Amino acid sequence: MSPVVLTFAPGPEHVRTARLVVVAVARRAGLEDSRLDDVRLAVGELCARAVSRCALDRARQGDVPADEWVIRVEVDDAGPRLEVTIEDPAGNVRLPEEVVTKAMAEALSDGVEFLAPAEGRRAAARLCWNRLPTSA
Amino acid sequence: MDLSVTSRQEGERAVVGVVGEIDVYTAPALRERLNDLVAAGHYRLVVDLTAVEFLDSTGLGVLVGGLNRVRNHDGSLHLVCSQEKILKVFRITGLTKVFPIHATLSEALAAPDDAAVPGD
Fold it and tell me: How far is B53 from B49, CA to CA, in rounded Å?
């Protein structure tokens, strides 16, 4: 199945929409019910983080074309794992409350990685969940 | 608005009832209500999260901010929550050690201000 992609202007009012979309894809992809709340929360955290990063780095907005000043969420359920990538256009900014957000993403997913923005690459956070229960 | 916040007096406690989703968008409304209550001299608060469907770290930050404010006045902030998905947020952030959390409102109202916070 091709990935589902959602882009939105970096406003806090859109984070709920992103949560709803990702959870809908995760449910259809067959993720266990017990993990859908984890997906909702982890994706909400990282989308909120992306919104806050953009707010903190508003000075950069003028340097970026308007249609690129967006948060992009991609949900890929093609492989054995559900992968959710959240990209934002902000630069190297550090949020004061980021430690809690990262710890929550770690606790709620089966893996999370953070990619710093670099030349030609936007900042990204990637979450994944195993679609099948891991056997003991 | 995906969040409703109400408050009422129950004996010596101000009970804040929260319904809906507490996230980066809606949390400011809860922060404002808690700040208003403290500014009006209410230092013994119970925040009822029974009807909360979602809580993120922004919401946790607001609750911790409220706790700090009432503590500056020797007050207290108790929570009511019995839903596993919301309790999990407090557990994974270690905040079960910070807030007294009760399963029901009547239990919260009966608890002493300095109710011991159970270990995790």
Answer: 9
Q: What is the pLDDT of residues A43-78, one digit of tens each?
A: 999 999 999 999 999 988 888 898 999 999 999 999
We report the CATH number of the domain holding residue A35 as 3.30.565.10
Instruction: Decide if A136 is inside a domain.
Output: no
Answer whether residue A111 is part of any domain. Answer: yes
The ipTM, to two decimals, is: 0.90
A71 is a domain residue? yes
Mutate which: B30, B52, B58, vs A, most A CBs within 10 A: B58
Q: Cβ distance B59 to B23 under 8 Å?
A: yes
Determine whether the interchain pair A41/B56 forms a contact, defined as Cβ–Cβ distance below 8 Å: yes
Q: What is the CA radius of gyration of chain A?
A: 15
Which tokens in the block code for residue B92?
């994974």
Q: Does residue A133 have a pLDDT over 90? A: no
Residues of B in contact with A15 (CB under 8 A): 23-25
Note whether A48 contacts B54, CB cutoff 8 Å: no
Residue A64: give the domain boundaries.
4-130
* pTM of the predicted protein model: 0.92
CATH superfamily membership of B3-107: STAS domain (3.30.750.24)
User: Chain A within 8 Å of B73 (Cβ-Cβ)?
Assistant: no
Q: How many independent structural domains does chain A possess?
A: 1
Question: How long is chain B?
Answer: 120
Query: Does B116 contact A at CB distance below 8 Å?
Result: no
Is B23 at the interface with chain A, CB within 8 A? Answer: yes
